[in-house]
Amino acid sequence: MKKIYGIGVLCAYLLAGCAGHSTEAEHDHDHEHEEAAVHDHEHEGHDHEHEEADHDHEHEEAGHDHEHDHEHEAAANPGEVVFKEANAKAVGLQTITVTPGAFTQVIRTSGQVLAAQGEESVMVATVPGVVSFGSVPFTDGTAVRKGQAVLSIASNGLSEGDVAVRAKAAYEAAKLEFERMEALVADRIVSAKEFEQAKLNYVNAKAAYEAVADKQTAKGVAVVAPLNGYLKNIQVKEGDYVSVGQPLATIAQSNRLMLRADVSERYYSSLPMVQSAHFKTPYDEQVYRLADLRGRLLSYGRASGGDSFFVPVTFEFDNKGAILPGSFVEVYLLTKPLEQVISVPVESLIEEQGLYSVYVRLDADCYRKQPVTLGANNGVEVQILSGLHGGEAVVTKGAHQVKLASASNAIPAHSHSH
Hints:
By secondary structure, this protein is of the alpha+beta class. It has helices spanning 2-76, 85-90, 163-185, 192-213, 399-407, and strands at residues 80-82, 94-97, 101-115, 120-124, 129-133, 143-144, 149-154, 216-217, 220-224, 229-232, 241-242, 247-252, 256-264, 276-280, 287-289, 296-300, 310-318, 328-341, 343-345, 350-352, 355-361, 366-377, 381-386, 393-397. The strands form five sheets. A seven-stranded antiparallel sheet has the order 15-14-18-3-13-17-16, with no helix packed on it. Strands 1, 19, 20, 21, 22 and 23 form a six-stranded antiparallel sheet that branches. Helix 3 (163-185) packs antiparallel against helix 4 (192-213). The longest helix has 75 residues, at 2-76.
């Protein structure tokens, strides 16, 4: 019995050993399989990373080539600016095609606008007395009509008495004396000499009375405007005492004006060639052409003034705009004609630290900044000595907008091939 029991225990021990060995073998096999799977996965990840690195490297090389090409385009077209056609229309950009044409030499100087002869009249006191203003504002620039009462002069408070009353009394007395003499001279009761003296006294008294009779007002004798125009050069104020003939104010029509240019003596030899002129006013910065204002040259001085080194050149023109008489202006005298000259409007120029340039349109969206050398300037157009050729389209209006666009286009996104 014991023997059988021992055999059973041995068999059980053997079976347990075999099961343990089998389990370890399976465990080792599974472990080896997992390690192989992990190794294979790591190898695949390594291959994937290698592929990504190759892709990144290719992408970097492509980007480098793109940047290189982009920089090459920028370097190949220096000074070009992209300004889209839609933006050009929005700002009202305009261009002209430059062609060689006629121009003139220019003498640039200063001058003054003056009233033309016969376009001004000075109001003077017709009687002595104290100035009294009426309903018309007695100030510079007030519009007046011919025959309109501008102010009055009262003399009733003076020791001599009212001028109008005295003039009327003198006239009536002289009239009676003349009529009496006229009746007696036929009978030779009075001499012809006495009659002529009475007649002279009567005529003078009548003239003095009629000069103030129709201008008598409650405030005194009215002073009327001799022509239509505007008051200027006011020389009295209310309450001032004036004597006969004293200036009170000036009335200017300003329909016809004069331009006097003060030219340096060194240009004296060129004055006979002066044809016309342009001038620019300081209050509106507008350049006026005398050719557009029916302007004409009146004269130029044959000698300089005693206190200056300038020779006057005088023009006359119509005041079609709001040109202010008495204002000082910048004058461009047009002299010797020039042929086959390339010129552009002044507003086309861009100035940077004393250097000038213009923008030339290359196509609908691209412009080139072109440095230029300037010649004569007549205030409207400027002569181009170098930098431009006939047939090029130059920006006349909107050049500063193109300049602003160039600041945001340091590396152009648009390449224009020539």
